[in-house]
Amino acid sequence: xxxxxxxxxxxxxxxxxxxxxxxxxxxxxxxxxxxxxxxxxxxxxxxxxxxxxxxxxxxxxxxxxxxxxxxxxxxxxxxxxxxxxxxxxxxxxxxxxxxxxxxxxxxxxxxxxxxxxxxxxxxxxxxxxxxxxxxxxxxxxxxxxxxxxxxxxxxxxxxxxxxxxxxxxxxxxxxxxxxxxxxxxxxxxxxxxxxxxxxxxxxxxxxxxxxxxxxxxxxxxxxxxxxxxxxxxxxxxxxxxxxxxxxxxxxxxxxxxxxxxxxxxxxxxxxxxxxxxxxxxxxxxxxxxxxxxxxx
Length: 296
Fold this sequence. Notes:
One of its GO terms (biological process) is vesicle-mediated transport. This protein has helices at about 15-55, 60-65, 75-80, 90-100, 105-120, 125-145, 155-160, 160-170, 180-185, 200-210, 225-230, 255-265, 280-295; strands at about 245-255, 270-280. By secondary structure, the chain is mainly alpha-helical. The chain folds into two domains: about 60-190; about 200-280, Rossmann fold (3-Layer(aba) Sandwich). Helix 3 packs parallel to helix 5. It is flat. The termini are far apart.
């Protein structure tokens, strides 16, 4: 039998000093690392809760439909409205976006849609008010110059008054995928494409001095211009003392976060302040539409 004995060399004073120094640094960093872990855990809990809510409400399906809302058939819309797993609020918002985006909805089809929503527990008072707004906007458009033959849904919405534009902007709600794993891997692909909303396009045209289109009804008032120009209300393309870098955008009525965020993204090139009479969530906006529909 053979025995083997290993004798470690004694530690030098420099080794003890190095170990002690490393332990001291670790102890000093412990509170900072603990706080980082706490913040990370908090954000993970928030993200997990959001993903669970997205999965329960099937917002990924609503998102896919809303991105191609004008291509949805009657069968697909009715299927979504009759789905018992979808909430009445999300169904109503989806249909309002569809109703405002398409050129025409027949009376028979509209009756079928309303029946499906009522059976699903939706309150259609908001729809009654939106129908009034759409009818009024169509009459206003008919009193103007006839639109081109190839007029599309975008052309129709472009002729809406500011109230009509805010309907689609406020009701627009994006979602992400259903299962938690799919959400983590494909969330980037589910984000909406970058596009300027009507308010952003108008602001861009006004500060750049682009005349025509959506800015035809806006006036450019400058005390540096003569009295005659001020009295006539110079158009946005009037002469200016250089490009505009600062702007205050105020919405008389309800504003919304989507419109604000769109302007913030645009404001990376400009300095823009956004304000409104009140800032509404999608749920609060639907509540206002319902109150208006019930009061008519």
